[in-house]
Amino acid sequence: MRRLRACLGAAAAVGLAAAGTTALVAGNASGATTALSNRWYAAAPYLMPLDNDPPDAATIMDATGLKAFQLAFILAPDGGGCSPTWGGTAAVSSDTAVQSVVNAIRAKGGDISVSIGGYGGTKLGQACSDAASTAAAYQQVITKYGLHAIDFDLEEPEYENSAAIRNEIGAAKILQQNNPGLYVSVTTAGTADGTGWFGKQMLLEAKSQGFTPNNFSIMPFDGGFNGAASQTGALTNFNSILQSTFGWDQATAYAHEGFSGMNGRSDTGEYFTQADFQTVLDYATSHNMDRFTFWSLNRDRQCTPADNGGRTSGTCSSVTQNSWDFAKYSVKFAGVTPPTNTPTPTPTPTPTSCKTAWSSTAVYTSGNEVSYNKHNWKAKWWTQNEVPGASEWGPWQDEGAC
Hints:
Oligomer: single chain
Structural class: alpha/beta
Radius of gyration: 20 Å
Low-confidence stretches: 1-31, 343-349
Order of helices and strands: HHEHEEEHEHHEHEHEHHEEEHEHEEEEE
Number of strands: 17
C-alpha cells in the first residue's frame, strides 16, 4: 500500500547526523527545557498529540503531577521517502501543531520524548536506505524539538524485516553517539515467555552492533494476558532473555528492562485495571527496573456508552475510572507523590456532527472522513468495501461518536 524509495547516501547522512548534534545544542540554548531526570523520561506515558481526541497535557500535569510525555508516532511519509512525519502525513519540518503542545508542556516545567514506529504505517527503517540515512531522518526530529529522549517502538510488521531492524538499531546507536546524554528506549512486543522470535532477533541485532540503550521494554498485552500476574511473569522471563543474550547478571538485566502496558481494555479484549497497574509498578520498583509506561493518555479517561459500545477505544479505557487514574502510576514510578485532590470530572463533550455516510462501493484514500454506526472515521490509506471498525487494525481510525 505504500511505496518506498531510497534516502540520503550514507556519507551525506552521517554528515547531517553530526551536524545535528551542533543544532541540538543551539536548539536547547534557544528555548528547549533543561533535561529532566532520566526517571521522568522512563515514566513518560504515550500521548498522540494529533489523533484520538488528544487530551490537554497541561490539565493532566495539574491533576497528576506528571512532567513527561511520550509523543507518538514518527513515521515515513505515506507517499514514500525518508523524511520524518507525524503519523505518515504531517511533516516534522513544517510542524507547528505538535510544537505548540511541546511548548505548553515545557512552559509548565515538563518535557517530552518522541516515539518512532508503532503498529501501523511505514517506518523510516523500512523506507530509508541504511542506518545512517535513518539516523539523519531522526536527527531532524531531535533537533526540531530539542529532544533529550527518544523511543524506538519496534513491532510488527517492521520487526519481521531484518534489514529494517538493522537500520533502526544502527540509527539508534548513531543517535546515542551523536547526542550525548540522550535517553534511548527500545520497545517491542511481549509474550508469556518474555518476547517472541522477532523480539529475540532484534536483541541479537543490538548485541551484534554493540548497542545498549537505557532499556529494552516489552508490551505484555494483546497476547493472551490476564491481569498483573501474567505480566510480571512475562517480565521475569524477559529478564532471563536479557541475561542470556547480553551476558548480564540478573540485576544488570533489570536495570536495562522496561514495562509498557495498556490501560483498561486491550485490543484483544484483555482487561488491566488500576490494581493491576499497582501490582506491576510494585514489581518494577522492587526489581529496580528502568522504565514503566503505558498506552495511552488518550485512553486514560472514563468511556461513555456512545464512546465505547463494548469495544476497545482509542479515546477511553473501557474500565471504571476517574480521569488520569493511570497516569498517576507513572508519577509514582518517577518518585513523586501525585496530588491527593480529585480533579473536577471532564464534562462529556457534545458529539460532533456526522460526516457523509460510509459507502461500500466508494473508494477512499488517506484522510477521507465518513460516518458509520454513529461514529466518524478517517481513512488511514486506500480502501474500498472495508467496514469501519470491523478490524482493530484495519484502514479506518475511529474519531469518536457523532
